[in-house]
Amino acid sequence: MIPSHTRRLTLEYCIIFRVHKPRLTNFILLTQLSVYRQFGWENLTSISEFYLLGLSEQPEQQEVLFGLFLSMYLVTVAGNLLIILAIIADAHLHTPMYFFLANLSLADACFMSTTVPKMLASIWIQNHVISYAGCLSQLYFFMLFVMLEAFLLAVMAYDHYVAICHPLHYIMFMSPGLCVLLVSASWIMNALHSLLHTLLMNSLSFCADHKIPHFFCDINPLLSLSCTDPFINELVIFTIGGLAGLVCVLCLIVSYTHIFSTILKIPSTQGKQKAFSTCSSHLSVVSLFFGTSFCVYFSPPSTCSAQKGTVASVMYTVVTPVLNPYIYSLRNREIESSLRKLIWVKKNPLPFVILTSYPIWGSPLNCIHHN
């Protein structure tokens, strides 16, 4: 067996030669196979597991990270599930805006459930190993929900634009069929997009060093461990992924530009401040999500180190799903009213049934008093 650094140099020479001499691809592949057989290398794709380094390797920080991420995960999942239940239970919320909110809440809950539980389990049992199949599965669902969130944020921005700038034509523009089509297309397109990235990742070969400097199986850390040329993977990221992200960003910019121009025409100062407060909170979360994700996937490696990339990943994988329920829903009076009704039904089912069944008996207080 030859030393590992000699094997790596030989393989790097093959990769560089293949890039600069594309017409000799078949010859280079045969050369690589012969070199593998000559030196008795094992199949590099036979790696069975990866090792997730996590956010920190300091033992004293593990308990703090566990408590912090566990609390954020529970708050996010509980908040999003309550929003979904409130929208389903209240017929007054069966509108396009809340239909998109329900899908965003579902995407946020699944988004965090893809990465955070594995990290919490790794800290709790002190085992940071993840299987090869588990890593690719996590990559698939992570790519699915991160792109789905981007598409839903763009769709919701368009919904806000129609509601504010064209309120009289809102029902015609945002028909139920169009809403279902937008959401279904987002799910299907992103499922296929994630499948493409997963299959391309599965076609790569990985070296003996299987330590991932991250808390989940993200696409860039995995590409850095590849011993084969990841040119096709990177090309797909910058073309298909970049195009999808650009479409979402353009939709957001155009929608919010028209929204702010319409808000400026409101004669009431109080109305302007309220509208600006709502739109600015939406825009801040959108900027945080897209800004950090673009820093991770589309910035040069020289400007975004592994540590900075991990911090940026935390911002859009953990912080944004935590903020979304509060920004988009829990500040909404209709959602708050529906949640109160939902909790009231669970605590006092009989008075609520009598109240809703026999409103002619008088005021709510009288109805409850008779029970």
Automatic annotation (TrEMBL):
<dbReference type="Pfam" id="PF13853">
    <property type="entry name" value="7tm_4"/>
</dbReference>
<feature type="transmembrane region" description="Helical">
    <location>
        <begin position="235"/>
        <end position="254"/>
    </location>
</feature>
<feature type="transmembrane region" description="Helical">
    <location>
        <begin position="64"/>
        <end position="88"/>
    </location>
</feature>
<dbReference type="InterPro" id="IPR017452">
    <property type="entry name" value="GPCR_Rhodpsn_7TM"/>
</dbReference>
<feature type="transmembrane region" description="Helical">
    <location>
        <begin position="137"/>
        <end position="158"/>
    </location>
</feature>
<dbReference type="GO" id="GO:0004984">
    <property type="term" value="F:olfactory receptor activity"/>
</dbReference>
<protein>
    <submittedName>
        <fullName>Olfactory receptor 1G1-like</fullName>
    </submittedName>
</protein>
<feature type="domain" description="G-protein coupled receptors family 1 profile">
    <location>
        <begin position="79"/>
        <end position="328"/>
    </location>
</feature>
<dbReference type="GO" id="GO:0016020">
    <property type="term" value="C:membrane"/>
</dbReference>
<keyword id="KW-0716">Sensory transduction</keyword>
<dbReference type="InterPro" id="IPR000725">
    <property type="entry name" value="Olfact_rcpt"/>
</dbReference>
<keyword id="KW-0297">G-protein coupled receptor</keyword>
<keyword id="KW-0807">Transducer</keyword>
<feature type="transmembrane region" description="Helical">
    <location>
        <begin position="311"/>
        <end position="330"/>
    </location>
</feature>
<keyword id="KW-0472">Membrane</keyword>
<feature type="transmembrane region" description="Helical">
    <location>
        <begin position="170"/>
        <end position="189"/>
    </location>
</feature>
<keyword id="KW-0675">Receptor</keyword>
<keyword id="KW-0812">Transmembrane</keyword>
<keyword id="KW-0552">Olfaction</keyword>
<dbReference type="GO" id="GO:0004930">
    <property type="term" value="F:G protein-coupled receptor activity"/>
</dbReference>
<dbReference type="InterPro" id="IPR000276">
    <property type="entry name" value="GPCR_Rhodpsn"/>
</dbReference>
<feature type="transmembrane region" description="Helical">
    <location>
        <begin position="275"/>
        <end position="299"/>
    </location>
</feature>
<comment type="function">
    <text>Putative odorant or sperm cell receptor.</text>
</comment>
<keyword id="KW-1133">Transmembrane helix</keyword>
